[in-house]
Design a protein that fits this description.
The chain is an alpha+beta fold. The chain contains 4 helices and 4 strands. It has a 4-stranded antiparallel β-sheet.
């Protein structure tokens, strides 16, 4: 009976470790996405008709992530619930790059995530 308990504890530990690794991986992807905005030089993040610099944009995304809490489990959830549109007005977020090109932030983040996941070793 004691051996069964030990085996069960080991199995539960492995399952928990695997779940934690997956959560960590998703958290790392989310932080990568936020950092990708924070490091953009000359870019503007457009939210509800107002322009913000890269630092203000990343701060806002971190705040939205914190508010979303357990609702955001994956990088896809982050894009959907935090990084695509205003939760107050429903207006899509936009990004204007230094060269003047403007895209919806959802497109930017999905492209970044795709690049990250396809370039894995």
């Amino acid at each position: 009976m004691k051996n069964i308990s030990v085996v069960l504890m080991v199995l539960l530990s492995l399952v928990a470790a695997d779940a934690f690794a997956q959560d960590f991986s998703e958290a790392a992807k989310i932080q990568y996405l936020i950092a990708s905005v924070e490091t953009l030089e000359g870019a503007k993040f457009i939210r509800n008709g107002h322009e913000y610099d890269a630092r203000a944009a990343s701060d806002h995304l971190r705040l939205k992530l914190q508010i979303a809490g357990k609702k955001v489990k994956t990088a896809e959830d982050f894009i959907k619930f935090c990084a695509s549109k205003s939760s107050m007005t429903g207006e899509p977020y936009l990004m204007r790059f230094a060269d003047g090109t403007t895209v919806k932030s959802e497109v930017y983040f999905r492209d970044k995530l795709k690049t990250l996941t396809t370039n894995k070793p």
